[in-house]
TrEMBL record, chain A:
Keywords: Acetylation, Coiled coil, Cytoplasm, Cytoskeleton, Isopeptide bond, Phosphoprotein, Ubl conjugation. PANTHER family: DYNACTIN P62 SUBUNIT (PTHR13034), DYNACTIN SUBUNIT 4 (PTHR13034:SF2). The keyword Acetylation applies. It comes from Glutinoglossum americanum. Residues 38-59, 388-408, 431-452 are annotated as: Disordered. One of its GO terms (cellular component) is stress fiber. It comes from the Eukaryota. Pfam families: Dynactin_p62. It is found in: Cytoplasm, Cytoskeleton, Microtubule organizing center, Centrosome; Cytoplasm, Cytoskeleton, Stress fiber; Cytoplasm, Myofibril. Subunit of dynactin, a multiprotein complex part of a tripartite complex with dynein and a adapter, such as BICDL1, BICD2 or HOOK3. The dynactin complex is built around ACTR1A/ACTB filament and consists of an actin-related filament composed of a shoulder domain, a pointed end and a barbed end. Its length is defined by its flexible shoulder domain. The soulder is composed of 2 DCTN1 subunits, 4 DCTN2 and 2 DCTN3. The 4 DCNT2 (via N-terminus) bind the ACTR1A filament and act as molecular rulers to determine the length. The pointed end is important for binding dynein-dynactin cargo adapters. The keyword Acetylation applies. This is Dynactin subunit 4. Belongs to the dynactin subunit 4 family. Residues 441-452 have a biased composition (Acidic residues).
From TrEMBL, chain B:
Belongs to the actin family. This is Actin-like ATPase domain-containing protein. It holds the Pfam family Actin. Residues 1-27 have a biased composition (Polar residues). It comes from the Eukaryota. Residues 1-51, 303-340 are annotated as: Disordered.
Amino acid sequence: MSRPFPYTYISCPCTDTSTPVCLSKRRGVDEVTRNLAKTPLGAGDDAEEEEERTFDPRSPRSNYSLYPLEHLLYCEDCHQIRCPRCVLDEIVCWFCPNCLFEVSSTMVKMEGNSWNTSDIGILFDRPSNITHQLERVANGGVPGFAEERAQARKKVIAGEDIPEGFAWDVDLTPDERFGKLKHFYLTQLVNSSSSSNSLDLSNSYGYGSPGALSRIMGLYSGITGYGNKKSKARSMPMREASTVADGLKLLERDESVIEKMKQAKWDDTTSLSQRAEQRYPHRFLSHILVKPESKVQTTRFRIRLVALNYIPTMNLRQLQPILKDYNALPPLKPIQFLLTLHNPLFDPIRITLATPSHTPGRFASKVTILCPEFEIGANTDVWDEALSTGSKEKRRTKAESSEGQAEAGKIWEKGRNWTTVVLEVVPASLDPTPKLPSLPEETEQESTTEDTVLEEDDDVLEIPLFVHAEYETEAAADGSGGVAGAEKEKEKRELAYWCVLGVGRIAHSAS
Amino acid sequence: MAASTQSHRNASSLRTASLQAHASTAPDSPHTPKRAVSTTSAFSSPAPGTRDIDESMVFEFGSRRFRAGFSNESAPRCSSGYGPEEQRRAGDYRRWVDGYENSWRKRKGGKDWSEAYELWRMDLRGVDLGLVGDKIERVVRDAYQKYLLHAMPRKLILILPPAFPRPLLSTLLTSLFANFQLPLITLLSSPVLSTIAAGLRSALVVDIGWHETIITGIFELRELLHCRTDRAGRMLSREMGKLLARESMKSQEWHEAKDTIADDDELSDEVSFEETEEVLARLAWCRSYSQVLRLRSISRQESPEETFADASEQLETPSVAEGDSEGAPPTPDPNDPAIIFPLQSTTPPMTVRLPMSRFAEPCETVLFAADAAADENWDDNEVPVHHLAYDALLSLPRDARGICMSRIIITGGASNIPGVKNRVIDEVAALFAERGWEKVRGKAVERRRTKLEEINRNLKPSRRVEIQKTSEYPHGDTPFPLHTPSPGLEDPELDPIDEKLRLENAHAVRPIVHGIVRGVETLGPWAGGALIGGLKIKGIAQIEQDKFLQQGLAGASKEGEINVATQRFSMGPGVPRGVSAGERSSWTLGVFG
């Protein structure tokens, strides 16, 4: 289970526009693509229908667009909800939990990790080559085997004369081989490309090099000697790497590995998770790192406003306390829920809710919102509520609420900046054939077939809910008006989005 | 570790590297080598470049893994999968809930064995492209936030398999351009980059990937041909899954009755995909060719009709039976020790004891089709890897074939299984030894060949006699021989000056190895992309963000419409290069179009 029931997820409207925008633009060309994309979603619905289709919390794509309200942001400029997908994070500062300093991200990238090992009593001479330094420590200050090997390898890299057999024994690490190859290619490029930059290699046009300078001199002075000499000498084409020094590595026999495997036990082999850690060691470190002496940066905040301050919060709870566990909703029994919306804005909002009468998915539950249109008061001063006469208020006593019958078209309760409406849900039965009382033998047989096997989350009751909010607010004061008039111009704003109410899990009919 | 890779990227170290190059090759005029790395402006004097600014990002998308990092680094910064756990809703922490591991059967639902773990499959009929776009977006964002730590716009080098489906390419580019600030994407083909990362210019690249094994013939960095087969990682993991499932069923009493009739679905519900992959990564291995030959000869002695796989089964059954019959450990066989490992995903969890040789079976049956008859007529999509490699070499032009056969690069995820690379090379060598480079095979050819050999045999002795004659009578007093050996057959006279020149040039011009079957190790396509990016080599398929978002894939012109030559040479050195808008009025997808 993802979160405790009942929960609310909000679907960021960016999802539907981010990918298909370009696809729909090229309707003629990529018709095939569109069709391909459509087929798994629903059989044979038209493009228009697709636009208006109700949000399906069970489709695999919904996982990417649904976020808890706390994860969302709100952009004041475009008046839109922004999810982590439509935001690019730029990390200005990193905080080190170890030394409690903040470090700018350029420092993080440049310096990397400067972890302090003096805490555990180990001091390194230099920040690189940690393995060998550790080995030296373990060896009592004497160079160990690894260091000897490293020295031998250094000789190979330097291209010093080493007996043939030995050269192959000392393997280059991928890192070293990469360096060799890079060196090799650079050499080749320098050799093969004439100064006229025929291979279009580098950003610079070689003004820094005397060779290019001499060529230009030749160009102006009319002495042809410069160019000719060069072109003769430089006609050599690029060759391939042919020695170890160039970075070539021939395939070697690996029977020894298999022999080693024979001796190893299960625990001796490296698991996948270990491999993932080994190969990319920066993974954790780059987060923690830090340089203590750098001063705290003056952080520039981008407009990054939390959606909680702009979007009504939704809460769901049951009307009558009949449910003990949201993880076992009784099937085929109507349950009434109270849906409370809190308004964080300083203007009253008109809300319109809409939901499909049956939830999508294999087991369709019935959903009815008894009062889909209502208003929520502004988030005014708390004292207003206490001082004003309670004309707007509509409260219910405990007794009322426990006995109370919800009326269609009327709100249940209303407070200063919140309104509660009633939502009636009839959870579906998880039994695929509920009306036919089948023999136990049959059910046993059926249970092996694919249809009756419950998949993960098949029993979760999730209600897609379309929220349309409308409110009037003061137009954004951008300093253009000069003198602000007594009556500021009101601006009408709309906000519409899908969200998902996770009600609970339907109890299995057997239990 | 971080420090070491960073020093590696250091601009100053590169400069010294290129200076060394300069010294060793001694060009005719003194010049500072061009600084290929981190030049901020075309006109600035060489200054300690601001590291990192110029490095482009390198992304490699595979069906199972995504690798991302920066050019000029030897390894990617991150490599992440597309597993179902990475695809949950935000704030969904159910994987940490107790007992989560045991509900994998429910999660799998009616899906295919590995579907939930893949980004895409090449059969696009069942692929939801929107979902693919979502997955790409999430995995890239994750890489950005956790590993790359860069939000500023950067150029991107995108590594893709050859002949990539257009709808997928469109989805991929759309989600990259729409969600991230990428001014320019360069498309590069993975086998070419594998070749570059091996230091070569021509090669036969055998990429044993997830969905398919792609064999590409590369000659002078151009793709000559592609061959594909389904025998790859996915089949391998499925086969390993079946092996584990059968073993676990064997040890459960209630399954004993229907052990033989267990079908694929049932088998795939026995052991989870994750655990199969774990076993595959830790225990799978591949027999060497010599071992296989030994096994084959044994099987022939015992029962000529039986196929190879049966024989190996027979060889191994005794130890299994011993292990099963009683709890007592079987007699330890040093060549085939038993491996004991836990299986968590079966119900109930169990400890399995299997001889080591069993873990070689999936490789045998999947990659090399050892269970099939020696020369079966396979469908196009199920040719065994070594046959496909041989066929690919056979269909290459003769010049390219000679070069490529001694540069076989084996890469891809499944090639990391110990023994696979050598086995492929050995098998190809054996096929070559058996058949030569003859496209025509069969009885008629055999007959013809024997006939020719007979003729040859009849001819040879007479000639030898003649040659002997000449040696018998070295001087002119004997009758002149009828046939003098042609001058071409004689050893050429040694020219001391030539010899001297040859020795002098020996370090510069090395003989090109060709005509023998030889394998070469590569650093992999990602490293190739990082090399290319580090060398600032411009690609043919370069796509600009604005243009793509306006025009989509349809805006790409066909290869050939763009005059590459003018782009490369017409610009004077004074024109600052870079991502200038007017530089290219049209763009192309190159080989991907």
